[in-house]
Amino acid sequence: DAGVIQSPRHEVTEMGQEVTLRCKPISGHDYLFWYRQTMMRGLELLIYFNNNVPIDDSGMPEDRFSAKMPNASFSTLKIQPSEPRDSAVYFCASSLFGQGLNTEAFFGQGTRLTVV
Amino acid sequence: LAKTTQPISMDSYEGQEVNITCSHNNIATNDYITWYQQFPSQGPRFIIQGYKTKVTNEVASLFIPADRKSSTLSLPRVSLSDTAVYYCLVGDMLYNQGGKLIFGQGTELSVKP
């Protein structure tokens, strides 16, 4: 498996524009996570899904953020409208939990978002 | 979810053993202890996980005392490539909380030649 695949790797957009980040989890994994990382706030969990169903979105900062998982192999994180303070690295991760020890999450390479 | 406390940064030299301790006083019975490593411009990567006593793999060892209120990640003979941020996570990996991976501030390890 190629691992968790995120696209794009880099995104530069103007304030007010809609941004869509994409993630393809590892095949067979039943959990998918979206994180945001900044120097100030560290690595924040935004939302996670189990079997394509959102379980906890309490980390989503505002209504401008939304995430979907239409099927087991694809998820999107959308920001509309984007603001400069949304600039960060966004990571997607997937995992297969409940299988005993060494239940690890696999992270993608991240999308570096810059909103100007 | 149990809160974790780690040193913000540590320095070491190549070839030394590095021990990073994490405090988790409120750890629950079902909680496991997991460590991740993150290099610059990359996502975190799983290192090791344990419940009690000692766990060892090809990368590191994890020491957990009987009261489980702390844990120590041990990296033997570090090299420059071990320079990274190390995160300690505590959570119920098998049941309802299994999905909620919360990262703290981590420990920034700097290995010098």
Question: Could you walk me through the main structural features you see in this protein, from its secondary elements to its overall organization?
Answer:
The complex is a heterodimer of chains A (116) and B (113). Chain A is an all-beta fold and 116 residues long. Chain A is built from no helices and eleven strands. In chain A, the strands form two sheets. In chain A, strands 2, 4, 5, 6, 9, 10 and 11 form a seven-stranded mixed β-sheet that branches. Chain B has strands at 9-13, 18-23, 31-38, 45-50, 53-56, 61-64, 70-75, 84-92, 107-112. With 113 residues, chain B is mainly beta. The interface between A and B is medium-sized, with 27 and 25 residues.
Mean residue pLDDT of chain B = 90
Compute the average pLDDT of chain A.
Answer: 92
Please summarize the sheet with the most strands of chain A: 7 strands, mixed
The assigned structural class of chain B equals: mainly beta
Which overall shape of chain A is indicated by the principal axes computed on the Cα atoms? Answer: globular
Q: Would you list the SSEs of chain B in sequence order as H and E?
A: EEEEEEEEE
Low-confidence stretches of chain A: none
Q: Which residue ranges of chain B are poorly predicted, with pLDDT under 50 across at least 5 consecutive positions? A: none
